[in-house]
Amino acid sequence: MSTQKPTPIKQGANAGDRPRRSNADLIAARNRHFLPTALLYHKEPLQLVKAQGEYVWDADGRRYLDAIGGIICISAGHNHPTIKAKLIQMLADDEIQHTSLLYLSEYPVALAEALIEEAPEGMDRASFTNSGSEANELAMMTARQATGETIIVNLRHGYHGGTASTLAQCGHHTWRFRAQPTASTTSAMEPYCYRCPFNKKPESCSFECAQNVETTIQTTTHGKIAGMIVEPVMGVGGFIDPPKEYFDLVTEIVHNYGGKYISDEVQTGVGRCGEEFFLTKELEIDADMVTLAKGFGNGAAIGAVVMKTEDAEALRGKLYFNTFGGDPLQTAQAKATMDVIKEENLIENARDMGARLKDGMKQLMKDHALIGDVRGRGLLLGMELVKDRKTKEHAPQEAIAFMDKCKEKGLLLGKGGLFGNVIRVAPSMTINAEQIDAMLATMGEAMHELARG
Predict the structure, then answer these.
(1) What architecture is domain 23-33+50-76+346-451?
(2) 67, 105, 190, 377: which has the fewest C-beta neighbours closer than 10 Å?
């Protein structure tokens, strides 16, 4: 794993030692010029100006342990020296920054070869996009073209991107707009074990949630579907992690009704869940297509789809073009990220550090009734906060207060869930045991302060 050491920055300055606009000025400008949908974390928002390894710094020079990684985009650590060196070398050599796939370049080809080598068996085609949203759009378009059908099945509490077609598959009213119902879509019940929609317990579960996928197809479609899109761990939904058996049942149902199964690994991919580069491969999910983004480029704007040749061939005779998908700098950064993950054994580190972190969070749960559930895989962990463990009443305000207290102590966390009451923890895969223990100590202190009111 990385041995990169954090270095401080000057108070009120950054690497360029230049003065910065005040937080109040930036907030006012955002309010004037940004869309009203632009959100900010924390009661007193941070202006982050520098990053290195597992840490970020604000404009006042204060250091924070980043445990959400730009919303799960940082996999190999901020400004990893190997990745930086690659980009600096390309710029110094005046290598072409933009080509599009209308011209030949070695970088997207090398990335595709590396990606296919890690992909689930049978997937031998890849395409690159600017984001996870676009990757999921391409996968759904391919499923519709390959099957001749239009309906995509999704899950309640799921999230697959911010474009029109992906938001149509979104299981959160807070993210959807009036335009979204225009897409051909239908929603099945969520495999949310902590809040089972069928009021089952683990000992009484017969995977009614998986059976509901078939019921949904039978009652809300004409009996054939284009496909189904599912996150192996539901990210925005609050890191809901179904058991492996769920996927075994659901993929069989989807294929029985003529559909293609799309595994959305925008958040779960690149080994973050601790065993394989693709969680789909680890869980042996019988997927037809898998999508990636976020940590795939370690901060670069790049997404990807891998699929089987038989599905890719369905696009033959049509034109598909992405202006920036496959550009040299983005694909080189993604390939360098893959190399770092492999060479520094970061998948194994994600497994080990994730287990240490999850065990610590479960210990916190024993001490604090505010924590109703701890779940997730590897370094993709959720802690659901509730006002009462019996009623499981959501605790969104407490989640905000907890995040603010952790921020004051130098720890940055995320949140999710339909009601915003799930603390999301997803540090860089380079994190070490000392940093994990510091995170847990900080979270414990914040919990105690909340308990004292």
Answers:
(1) Alpha-Beta Complex (3.90)
(2) 105
